[in-house]
Design a protein that fits this description.
The protein is built from 5 helices and 2 strands. With about 120 residues, it is an alpha+beta fold. About 10% of the residues are buried.
């Protein structure tokens, strides 16, 4: 799914992995490294209830959202491949060793002024 998602997002001019580029973008915008405060949080889905929540979310997203439609329209994935990805998410719910971690990077840019 990640490969399909990334290709669809990039086809529309978005950057699906923007978090890892935030520091470089801030530096390019004129911030010095010491003017940046970078942190991250990680959402974890491990229990059956959590796996069911995230798997259902991605199942619906790939099958019934613009992502799946665009993937098919752009030739990134066939309908069968999209359905296989969706069904794999549903099967993953029952995987007791299943774990999904989703990092989110945060950046605070503070322009320092000379006194």
């Amino acid at each position: 799914m990640q490969d399909i998602f990334e290709k669809v997002m990039r086809s529309g001019g978005s950057e699906p992995n923007a978090g890892r580029r935030l520091v470089a973008w801030a530096r390019k915008a004129g911030f010095a490294r010491e003017e940046l405060q970078v942190s991250a949080v990680v959402e974890v889905y491990s229990s059956r209830t959590e796996r069911e929540f995230i798997a259902t979310r991605y199942y619906e997203r790939i099958l019934h959202s613009e992502i799946g439609r665009k993937a098919e329209e752009l030739g990134i994935a066939t309908r069968e491949e999209i359905e296989n990805v969706a069904n794999a998410w549903k099967q993953w719910i029952d995987e007791d060793n299943g774990y999904y971690g989703m990092p989110s990077t945060e950046i605070l840019c503070r322009k320092m002024h000379d006194s």
